Amino acid sequence: MNALNVNDLEQLTQALRQALSQWHTPQVAAPLASLKIFRAGRSSSNNGVEQAVRDVLDDMLDQLAAEQAELATLLRQRYLECRPMSEVAKELNRSEASAYRDQRRALEALARLIQDAEMQLRSARTARLEQRLEPPTYDKLFGVHDLLESMFNTVRDPEGPRLFLFVGMGGIGKTTLADALVRRIIEEEHAFEVGWVSARDRVFRLWGDIVPTSGAPLTPESVFERMAEQLLSGIPLPTPFTVEAVMPMLEKHLKRVPHVVVIDNLETFEDVNTLLPYLRQLSNPSRFILTSRLSLHGEPDVHHLRVPELGAEDALALIRHEARNRNIDYMLQASDEELMPIYQAVGGNPLALRLVVGQTYVHALPTVLEDLNMARGRSVEQLYTYIFHRAWTSLDEVSQRTLLSFPLVPQRGATFDHLAHITKLDPDSLHDALEILVRLNLVERRGNMHEVRFTIHSLTRSFLKEQVAKWQ
Amino acid sequence: MAITMTFDPTALFNDYVKNNVEYALQRLQTNNVRTPPLTDQELALQALAFSLNLASSWPLTRRLLLALAPKMEQSGHRQEWHTYLLEGLHFSQQAGDRRTEAELRFHLGLLYQLMRRFDDAEKQYEQALELFKQLDETHGQARTLNRLAIVARQKRRFDLALARVEEAESLLAPDDTERAYCYLVRGSLCHDRREWAEAAGYFRRSLELSEKKRALREMAWGHANLGMALRHLEQMEESEHHLKQAISLFDDIGDPVNKAISLMNLGNLYLTLEEPEKALDCYRQAEPIFRETQDIMNEAKVCNNIGMAYRHLKRWNEAVTSYVRSVTLWRQLDNPVLLENALLGLAIAYLSQDHKESARPLLKEAESLLEEIQDPRSQDFFRQELDECLKMLEGTEETAVVEQER
């Protein structure tokens, strides 16, 4: 089914003409079936899709009759009663040519009524679904348009994956990408409803604070409770609440009405493996998008999307946008050359880039960059803590030793052989350590079937270099 | 954020720095005379960036610096690599390592020479020579004297150049490979005097010796210079053969700058043979290499030559574009002869399209520049060219092609 563009009146008029021409056939529904008003009508009708479409069109013709009776009559006689135009024209006391012109006007008027009704229904839907999301932390997207487009198509693909993982280091933009994707689905893909469950236990504020979010850390019970509260509104939840008890209710709902549900910040879960079987059960046709700093490469049915760093051009555009929002004149007037040191220090990590711009409100840029390199100042320390602390403390000694070799690795990465030479670790230990570091997204694996290289994000490099500088 | 660890990170990281230098050395050794792949160059530079901050790693660091130096020069690195050499020099002085200091000064001199900073090059070579003398390193002295001879030649102090090369020869055994370089210097001095047959003779001897020793880069230089001398002797087929050999060898060892120079000379040969399309093909391959390696002088030359090739083809707009680039570059360089040459080439391209107003200021500039040309033969040649251009400006007379000599 091709989605009808409701904003295109000509296209809508054509579809309407086609539907009316097929009034007495089962094909009456096809041209207009993608519109929400007809799908809403279908859910309240017991007489099948075709009848639901006929009912809605009949109502619309009544509305048209209230405003322009002759036009409504013309359409009823032509399409519902299947009378030839010559006869209709005669009855309406028109020439045949003039009757054809009226028919065109009538179709356009009816299409406009359908358009208004659809838009009304859509804005109500948008408002209802957007309430489920957290307020966006961005007002413009940078560097992810192609990725967003590709994910939008993949998520909607009926044959495509059902479980998605947006993975990457802290601040890289996983939540932003998921948020942008579900907002696009709300706007453009009416076959899906959306849901959002946040497992975030703390937030990094751009003035340099880590703020714990309210509530206890999430468990599978609390995730499904939040999900059920959001998606099954109006339906009493089981008491006492258990996952086993709510699963059939959620399953029934998610199978009947396809959803795209985001579970944000999955890394806060102690054991993701307890959650995945339930998500598998609930998926198809629904989709789940998980965001996490941890990869799940052991799960073959989870479609991984590594959220990349911004390239230099997008990073500079973000810096300038942020400076404009904060009205920091001298940053706005700075040349690419003057702004490049920011990118060189923190790479394309949007959170870190925004922090740097925020800091220049108070300090000179060289001071801010030096603070970053020397991990000085509370804001910078907090940024590093926010991004690296949890990961670092979860590492075993061999993995820590391996990570410490990475400042010596060139930008394009090191081969396994190179890392083995630097660390002098035996191949098995190094292999295990790299697996952990890649899973935690502290190290990035690049390459192809023939050659694999390991590298780190620029911000991780700055962080490690700063640590190394302290030791030397 | 304080990192907590169950091991001593300083000691561990310092070990890593040394291990990394060892690995970089190992990678370089696998490449022998050829330029290492970019990944290994980056790896080595990253290793040096850390080891040059760690005194205890100096024995390894100096090995890496000295192993890397000829390869970095060969692959066209200039400014960035120069910084590492300076840091290494500083370190060697602190460590009282005179042998390494002498070698690093030699490589710095070479880099300055290639960057056409001849005074700086001379200074470094002289200091290197003094250190080699103190260390009684005759081969090091000979190598340095040969390069000092080249710098003297560039500064047009031909007698000094000859004296330097003679001194170098006096220090070398009869079959020492460095003698191949002595022959190159002698050949170049003959070339400057337009003694083409003598020049070709020296270049042949250089080539024979380097072939005997399988010294690939010296072989490539031998072919390249011989090819040029033979062109002047109008032995075109043999000249083409040697230039092609040079290009192939420079390509094999990963020496893009010298490959581009030989391509440019092959282009010049084709232009002499009135085969402008083939010439353009060579120039077009050479131009991006000069641009990438920021070799302004050779870029200026090749742009001038591209302009000439387009003039042969009467593709005037393309000729103008290339000459404009050449003139712009020559204006940045202190070489009135070649600026004059490019100005006249551009003026002719304009006049051929009847754009007299564009040509007029160029001819004015060329006229005033004539005063600065000291070589009387060149001055006469350009005066004649200028007169013909001025006639074209007044009328429509066609002029002969100005060919730029390398």
Q: How does this model look, in words?
A:
Chain A is α/β, with parallel strands linked by helices and 472 residues long. Chain A is built from 21 helices and 9 strands. Chain A has a 5-stranded parallel sheet, sandwiched between helices. In chain A, helix 11 links the parallel strand 5 and strand 6. In chain A, helix 3 packs across helix 6. The longest helix of chain A has 35 residues, at 96-130. The model of chain A has no long low-confidence stretch (mean pLDDT 85). In chain B, helix 3 (58-74) packs antiparallel against helix 4, helix 8 (158-171) runs antiparallel to helix 9 (178-192) and helix 14 runs antiparallel to helix 15. Chain B has a domain at 295-406: Alpha Horseshoe (Serine Threonine Protein Phosphatase 5, Tetratricopeptide repeat), CATH 1.25.40. The longest helix of chain B has 21 residues, at 9-29. In chain B, 50% of the residues are buried. Chain B is mainly alpha-helical and 406 residues long.
- Tell me roughly what share of residues is in helical segments of chain B: over 70%
Q: Please give the count of helices of chain B.
A: 19
Dominant shape of chain B: globular
Give the biggest sheet of chain B. Answer: none
Structural class of chain B: mainly alpha
Coarse morphology of chain A? elongated
Q: Regarding CATH, which class of the domain at 295-406 in chain B?
A: Mainly Alpha
Over all CA atoms, what is the radius of gyration of chain B? 24 Å
Order of helices and strands of chain B: HHHHHHHHHHHHHHHHHHH
One letter per element, helices H and strands E, the order of chain A comes to HHHHHHHEHEEEHHEHEEHHHHHHHHHEEH
Can you list the strand order of the major beta sheet of chain A?
Answer: 2-5-6-1-7
Approximate strand percentage of chain B = under 5%
The major pleated sheet of chain A works out as: 5 strands, parallel
Summing up helix and strand content along with how strands pair, one would put the structural category of chain A as alpha/beta
Distance between the termini of chain A: 65 Å
What's the rounded overall pLDDT mean of chain A?
85
Which CATH architecture of the domain at 295-406 in chain B would you pick?
Answer: Alpha Horseshoe
